[in-house]
Amino acid sequence: MAPQKEIFQLVIGHFGSDLEEMRAAAAFAAGNIAVGNLHQFLPAIVNMVEVDPRKRLLALHAAKEVFPTLLLLFRT
Predict the structure, then answer these.
(1) Is residue 18's pLDDT more than 80?
(2) pTM (2 decimals)?
(3) Residue 54: φ, ψ to 5°
(4) S-S: 17 plus which of 7, 22, 55, 65, CB 3.0-4.6 Å?
(5) Is 3 or 21 the better-scoring residue by pLDDT?
(6) Neighbours of 22 (CB within 10 A)
(7) 32-73 residue pLDDT tens
(8) Quick one: pLDDT at residue 2?
């Protein structure tokens, strides 16, 4: 599981990029990484929303990527 965590941290690091496209891609990637292991990565995204004003909007975009998966899980 360590490689996923390292990649997740690398992706989150791009939330501070000067390029809007890079920040948007990082939020998309972080959300999709979280889909692969909700128990590990979703709490990290929620934590960013709660405590880091600079990353809040991007963390919300990442969370938005997770919601369709959560809906599918709860429908079955």
Answers:
(1) yes
(2) 0.88
(3) -70, -25
(4) 22
(5) 21
(6) 13
(7) 999 999 999 999 999 999 999 999 999 999 999 999 988 888
(8) 64
Residue entry with tokens 């809040």: 56
- The residue type of 31 is G
Count of domains observed in the chain: 1
Which of these, 18, 17, 41, lies nearest to 31 by C-alpha position?
41
Give the list of residues 6+ apart from residue 36 with CB closer than 8 angstroms, or none.
Answer: 4
Q: How big is the chain, counted in residues?
A: 76
